Amino acid sequence: MSTEACIFGASVPCENAKKILDIGTGTGILSLFCSQRNTQNATIDAIDIDENAYNQAKENVENSVFKAQINVFFEKLQNFLIENNGNINDNTQKYDLIISNPPFFEAHFSTQNIQKKHAKHADTLNMEDLALHSVRLLSEMGVFWVIFPPLEMEKFEKIAEKYHLFLYKKIKIFQNEHQKIQHKIFREICGFSFQKTQESEIIKENFCIYAQNNENSYIYSNDFKTLLKEFYLYLD
Question: Is residue 119 part of a domain?
Fold first, then answer.
């Protein structure tokens, strides 16, 4: 369970969603975060193409108090809710929230380990497919949230706009205040919708994971403690 995934899961506005899709669920952590925060007893569909991740997510969901809400599928996004004849199932109720912590490194060399390959590379889910199929599955007033490193997010924003998904909120995550001053962004969390937002109206926030405790050590920042206090047992 990565720190940035926890920040993502705690930041996405899922409280009032009634139907949620988690693309590339991994261990199911984002679906579980959304279940805990959601006030509507939302139906959550979580999909992953990696069999080990799928099995781990199934186990984690089954051992949680939210198992009635979450459905885990061993399925590619490109095939999800498409009928055997290749046609899109138009009778499917679309999602009012889609979240994804997707493969990061499109241009990097592939790893020999197939599980790491699926988790860290976009060979099985590139940005184009992520945008295209999220648009296919998103309701008219729905929102799509994704986390990427800054260079990848810059690429994805352009691709998303091509499919009429427009940025309306961006959270820049920094490891600490020193990196914030140097503008060394660690990750970006972005929200998109079909409603175009003027550049001046896009909500922009900064978030630091750590605060400096003394010259040689760091502790979790107050922002981090406030955001994650309901999910972490210890935040010292």
Answer: yes
> What CATH number corresponds to the domain at position 132?
3.40.50.150
Task: Characterize the bridge pairing of strands 203-212 and 187-193.
Answer: unpaired
What is the C-alpha separation between 212 and 227, in angstroms, rounded?
A: 18
Count up the domains in the chain and report the number.
Answer: 1
β-strands 218-220, 203-212 pairing: antiparallel
Residues 6+ apart with CB under 8 A from 22: 28, 30, 31, 34, 44, 45, 46, 47, 99, 100
Query: Which of 112, 191, 184, 201 lies closest to 149 in space, CA to CA?
Result: 184
| Cα-Cα end-to-end distance for the chain | 18
Give the 3-state secondary structure percentages of the chain, helix then strand then coil, rounded to 5: 35, 30, 40
Q: Tell whether 72 is covered by a domain.
A: yes
How large is the C-alpha radius of gyration of the chain? 18
pLDDT digits (tens, 9 = 90+) for 44-77: 999 999 999 999 999 999 999 999 999 999 999 9
Residue 234 lies in a domain: no
pLDDT bucket at 232, cuts 50 / 70 / 90: confident
Domain assignment present for residue 235? The answer is: no
Q: What is the DSSP letter of 77?
A: G
pTM: 0.90
Domain carrying residue 23: 3-228
Provide the pLDDT for residue 113. 53
3-class secondary structure per residue, 5-39: HHHHHHHCCCCCCCEEEEECCCCCHHHHHHHHHCC
